[in-house]
Design goal:
Elements lengths: L2 E4 L8 H10 L4 E4 L1 H4 L13 H13 L3 E6 L9 H21 L3 E4 L10 H22 L2 E4 L10 H11 L4 E5 L1 H4 L8 H12 L3 E6 L1 E4 L5 E4 L8 H11 L5 E3 L7 H15 L2
Parallel strand pairs: 1-2, 1-10, 2-3, 3-4, 4-5, 5-6, 6-7, 7-10
Antiparallel strand pairs: 8-9
Length: about 280
Amino acid sequence: MTVGALAHLFGTYTYKEMAQTLGEYRINHVQLAIWKAFNDYDFTKPGVLNPGLVRNIKKEFDKNEVDISIIASYLHLFDENEVAHQTFIQRYKELIRYASMFGAPMIATEVGRPQPNGDYEKDWDKLYHSLVELVREAEQWGIIVGLEAAHGHLIGSARTLKQMLDELNSSQVGVVLDPGNLLTQENYQKQDEVIEEAFELLGKHIVACHAKDRLLDAQGILRETSPGLGLLNYDLFMQRLHQYKPECHIIIEHTEPEDMYRVIQFIEQKRAQFAK
């Protein structure tokens, strides 16, 4: 199967407990954010990872037949606090250095939210130079930097993500596509256009996808929900994904562990319609 999940959706455990839990739920592969999923050690500071620890983590996951397909960063890459910013950069570089030992070819990256009334040009410039530094490191280690657009983040749309791809101009940079992240209160009624634009601009750069859904609550506010329970056009999503990137890994978001089997079956059945 090509559908996996965010590891930390199952909770926070020791790495042995996490591997066993994922195995019990028969999750084939995960996106792993070590400081969200594991509580054995303090991974919020750079310097803890080492070859012995990473190999032991991977052995436990292998024992439970769970692949680590993506490492996640969740780090703010243009923080105004320079001390915090440098810490985030060092943590990201550490992930790059050890990603291949985890068995993951990429780091998934939402870049962070700007401050209210922030200076867009200044933020963009700092983000760009941060990514240049990280991409240079990734090129040395053969790891893909997978950028993800998310509404409300500095890279918040398919167009701004394409702009950053063009500016970085590196074959080591790819796209983690989540159509649910691109839908807003203003554009959800034109979601087919949003999805089509995303694939037209970013399709050839996709290295993985995320899957969530969107629905309107009782007050008419657009909210996140589990795949298959909202209004996202999964037929179009899966059709275009098969067209551009057949068998691309998909990571489930915003889903309770008890609902994982339903979601995996939902997505796999949608994919199968267009893989014939």
